[in-house]
Amino acid sequence: MPIDPSVAIGAELGTAEFSWSASDVLLYQLALGAGADPLSGRELRYATEQDTVVLPTFATVAQNFHATEPPKVSFPGVEIDLAKVVHGSQSVTAHRPLPASGTAVARTRISDVHDKGKAAVIWQETEVVDGAGDPLWTARSSIFARGEGGFGGERGPSERIELPDRDADVTVDVPTLPQQALLYRLCGDRNPLHSDPAFAKAAGFDAPILHGLCTYGVVAKAVTDAVLDGDASRVGSWSAKFAGIMLPGETLRVRIWHDDERHLVTAESVERSAPVLADAVFTAR
């Protein structure tokens, strides 16, 4: 079924009530590599119940944390084979510190659909409020569907973040585990692209790749540690575009430039000297 932007754009995808526990948060943050130094008080705040801090990137998994089925790309006006889809971009704005456990209501809509010729980009926006109706977070994401363009839609803007003409103010190398994707999939994303070698090969990859949202969270933690000394309650927003794949077991090189009240970030695979995240912006409260 071809994409129909007249149906898709603005389509409401419904509301959903969901809950999460401290154990969900701890598993998520362990799946990002938290606790690598089990004697570090900062790491233990991510990885134990003692004075737990919650990375706002938990918002990307909270609603579907206990999902056990592969996701489907089936929306009003959009029907796409999962094997053609990769994450395009992601942003989370935390309206206040995320609690370690709670119940919330999410409302999601398709905010835009862009026709890139050989591919389609579908944007979703999710507003999340607590039981009292007070805002918790806003998430915005795009998926890139190869071979699904050419349906006559708007191409959309091309937005780039200009980096300062100097060396990064901070550079951090973050190793990932060979089993990182297998651990992260327990946070609700069972896409076989990240666990099944045959599926990954059919999708055009030599091996299963790391979830884009895992990389997104790993880098967010690295920046939070470097800029805020691990105080995740002070993170205001985090946005990034996915510029390339990350393979489990590779090392991420995270570069940070301080730019007035925001921090500009890039991330690349050290082993392949290949970009992984680009046009990334981190802000603190």
How does this model look, in words?
This protein is α+β, with helices and mostly antiparallel strands and 285 residues long. The protein has helices spanning 5-8, 22-31, 41-47, 180-184, 197-202, 212-228; strands spanning 12-20, 73-75, 78-80, 85-94, 102-115, 119-130, 135-146, 170-175, 235-242, 251-259, 262-269, 274-284. Helix content is 17%, strand content 37%. The strands form two sheets. It has a ten-stranded antiparallel beta sheet with strand order 1-5-6-7-4-9-12-11-10-8.
Provide a brief overview of the structure.
The chain is an alpha+beta fold and 285 residues long. The chain has six helices and twelve strands.
User: Main β-sheet, in a few words?
Assistant: 10 strands, antiparallel
Mean pLDDT equals 93
Number of domains: 1
> What structural class is derived from the secondary structure elements?
alpha+beta
CATH-defined topology? Thiol Ester Dehydrase, Chain A
What would CATH call the homologous superfamily? Hotdog Thioesterase
* First-to-last CA distance: 44 Å
Q: How large is the share of residues in beta strands?
A: 35-45%
Q: Which shape, going by the Cα principal axes?
A: globular
CATH architecture assignment: Roll
Query: How much helical structure, as a percent, in the residues?
Result: 10-25%
CATH first level: Alpha Beta
> Count of helices?
6
Q: What series of H and E elements makes up the topology?
A: HEHHEEEEEEEHHHEEEE
The spatial strand order of the largest sheet comes to 1-5-6-7-4-9-12-11-10-8
Number of strands: 12
Give me the Rg, rounded. Answer: 18 Å
Low-confidence spans: pLDDT under 50, at least 5 residues?
none
